[in-house]
Design goal:
Layout (H helix, E strand, L loop, with lengths): L19 H13 L3 H11 L9 H9 L8 H13 L4 H17 L3 H17 L3 H16 L6 H14 L3 H9 L8 H17 L3 H14 L5 H14 L3 H18 L2 H17 L5 H9 L6 H17 L3 H9 L9 H13 L1 H13 L4 H14 L25 E4 L5 E4 L2 E2 L8 H12 L3 E2 H8 L5 H19 L11 E4 L2 E4 L5 E3 H17 L3 H13 L15 H25 L3 H14 L4 H12 L4 H18 L5 H9 L6
Parallel strand pairs: 1-7
Antiparallel strand pairs: 1-2, 2-3, 4-6, 5-6
Length: 657
């Protein structure tokens, strides 16, 4: 085999990969000219991260073009990546990874051997294949000892993953701490943060775990977004944030669909089915049944579906069927989402399972929360009190003490209120004054009571306005908390004559979340923290968009506050969209730009960014449509396009004159 100099541009493949659009173009050129070396370089750069940098259809087109010989290790590596991404059985994909790794080793191509080995290690983790993972660690250690320093970080990452699988989260963190700063870049850095966050959670350090998993979302490329969001969802679930966990899963599903990652999509949907079943959602069993009719190559996804159907049976009142289904699951002795749920339910329903898992948890302390939940559930089924709320992540909600409901207040776009993700029929929220009062309390927190009354009813006397405010406040309290589920945690707070909405985990407001994200963007920009910028930008993308209260008219009091919000949002989009483009995430860049253009359709800079984001993803038709739309918008103002717009137009084949 001809030995290549390395990935395009001469950089180490362990460094950040080139932009997706450049790689796709390079691969397409290599296929058109039957350039074997060029396609090898494109394959190496695209597969330098796991999951791959380019979409599945591109990988499949490269594989099926037959430019590479069947026995070329790059072709074997490419086939392994395709199989993994398309949701085909993982054992066969792992065999292909091993074949490629052996071939690269035989040719002395250490860099490729390491990259293939890291991909194989990720698949081995999903298969609970400790032998393959152990062999990779040994081999990476040998290469490091032979004078290949780039092998050290993969070896330590492999050690961390193995320690996690063996139930030693402290050992996993120790291995990660021995990785030199910046030794892993791009998606491999995201993998590092994911492993660290997961093990911090296993050590019951939830705040640190959530911080590292949020960081992973910022580091991850478009391909591994769904994985990072899936882990973030698991962490939120474990900490009792059921609503937040399900929202992260919705974002993870969208991310997997956008890049065509069927394997990731199946895993995300299976976890969603399991969480919905635990939460008593009637749609869980139907979702699990639908997924089981489709081929699923990931053992964890299969287990989650089994767990979902067991919980659904229990919630429906059929304990015997739930017991039969949960005992039929082959549960690994490690703290995966499926095993924690399965242990909790099995220990609740069967005394022999409590004994079995007690022995295992003595060796694997990370399993103890699920076992403790199972014991509490068994006590409740035997006639005792409901299990404490802390056990709710592992037991049907009806078996546990109720948690205060989570109220979500949406003010962006069409305004709505949901309580534990369910809309309340015939709510006082339908009253316009209730919604306007809410917006005031969000945009101008801690306002004096008499000032609020004066702003909302300027035409009335002070006494009449105060009376209207009292009535409207009563309606608002009924809309947000009709059952007064937590009387010592009111959602509308009056303090020394001022009104505010509570800063409570059980009250979530999209406008308030947006303000927090904008603050995070400013903080990250101030210290040139690219990962922090991207993490905040992705949080912004996951928030609803649209004008507050769908643009409904309000008093003049709101105009300066809304103008300030608009300016801050436009400034943030203009700052972070180019960063997303440079990171190769054109989807994120376009989503941000579209949010900005909804506020300012005449911003030439935003139109330029939209054209760039589409052009860099090889969507020339979309780029030209965006350019023509910009031309029309500018013509309405009588503005001559900037030189940058004219030059950008030429790059996509349009002459503006």
């Amino acid at each position: 085999m001809e030995r290549d100099a390395g990935p395009p541009g001469g950089r180490s493949a362990l460094a950040p990969a080139r932009r997706t659009s450049e790689l796709i173009a390079a691969g397409d050129r290599a296929i058109a000219t039957r350039d074997v070396g060029g396609l090898r370089r494109a394959v190496r750069a695209a597969l330098a991260v796991q999951p791959p940098l380019v979409p599945v259809p591109v990988l499949r087109a490269w594989r099926d073009a037959e430019v590479l010989d069947a026995d070329d290790p790059h072709a074997t590596w490419l086939d392994a990546a395709c199989q993994t991404s398309l949701g085909q059985p993982l054992p066969a994909a792992l065999d292909r990874f091993r074949d490629a790794m052996t071939a690269f080793a035989a040719h002395g191509d250490v860099e490729a051997e390491l990259l293939v080995g890291m991909g194989a290690a990720q698949v081995a983790r999903r298969l609970d294949d400790l032998d393959t993972l152990g062999r990779f660690i040994v081999r990476a250690g040998e290469l490091a000892a032979q004078g290949h320093p780039e092998a050290s970080a993969p070896a330590r990452l492999g050690e961390a993953i193995l320690s996690q699988m063996l139930g030693d989260p402290a050992g996993a963190l120790d291995a990660l701490d021995r990785i030199a700063p910046d030794a892993l870049q791009g998606d491999w850095a995201a993998q590092l943060s994911m492993v660290r966050g997961t093990n911090l959670l296993l050590l019951d350090r939830p705040d640190e775990a959530l911080a590292h998993l949020e960081l992973a979302v910022g580091q991850a490329g478009s391909w591994s977004q769904s994985v990072a969001l899936l882990l973030l969802s698991s962490a939120r679930w474990r900490t009792g944030d059921r609503v937040g966990a399900l929202h992260e899963l919705e974002a993870a599903e969208l991310a997997a669909r956008e890049v065509g990652a069927r394997s990731n999509l199946a895993l995300v949907r299976a976890q969603r089915a399991a969480m919905l079943a635990v939460d008593g959602d009637p749609g869980a069993d139907a979702l699990a049944a639908d997924l089981q009719r489709r081929p699923v190559g990931d053992p964890e996804a299969v287990r989650l579906l089994q767990v979902a159907r067991a919980f659904a049976a229990v919630v429906a009142g059929d304990l015997d069927e739930g017991r039969r289904r949960i005992l039929a699951c082959e549960v690994p002795e490690r703290a995966s989402p499926s095993s924690m749920l399965a242990i909790g339910l099995a220990a609740a329903l069967d005394a022999t399972q409590r004994e079995r898992w007690a022995a295992v948890a003595a060796r694997r302390p990370a399993l103890r929360p699920a076992l403790d939940a199972g014991r509490a559930g068994a006590g409740h089924l035997a006639g005792g009190p409901r299990a404490a709320a802390v056990h709710r992540p592992f037991l049907p909600g009806a078996w546990c003490e109720p948690s205060p409901p989570v109220v979500e207040l949406r003010l962006l776009g069409r305004a709505s209120v949901t309580i534990d993700r369910r809309r309340v029929p015939a709510s006082p929220w339908e009253r316009g004054r209730v919604r306007e009062l809410t917006r005031h309390l969000v945009l101008a927190p801690s306002s004096a009571r008499d000032l609020v009354a004066d702003r909302l009813w300027p035409e009335l006397t002070s006494e009449a306005a105060a009376r209207n405010l009292r009535v409207t406040l009563s309606y608002l309290r009924n809309a947000l908390d009709p059952d007064r589920a937590a009387p010592d945690d009111p959602l509308v707070v009056e303090d020394e004559g001022s009104l505010r909405l509570a800063e409570s985990p059980r009250l979530r407001i999209d406008l308030r979340d947006e303000a927090a994200v904008l603050d995070a963007l400013q903080d990250a920009a101030a210290i040139d923290d690219t990962a922090g910028l991207l993490a905040a930008a992705r949080r912004l993308r996951r928030l609803p968009s649209g004008p507050p209260l769908a643009g409904a008219a309000v008093g003049s009091w709101a105009e300066p506050l809304l103008r300030r919000r608009r300016d801050e949002l436009l400034g943030a989009v203009a700052r972070v969209a180019p960063v997303a483009l440079d990171a190769g995430d054109g989807d994120l860049a376009e989503a941000l730009v579209q949010r900005g253009l909804a506020l300012d359709p005449w911003s030439e800079r935003l139109h330029q960014l939209l054209v760039r984001s589409r052009a860099e993803r090889d969507d020339l038709d979309g780029a030209r449509r965006a350019l023509r739309d910009a031309q029309r918008q500018l013509a309405e103002l009588g503005v001559v396009p900037e030189r940058a717009t004219v030059e950008l137009a030429r790059t996509i084949g349009i002459e503006l004159g």
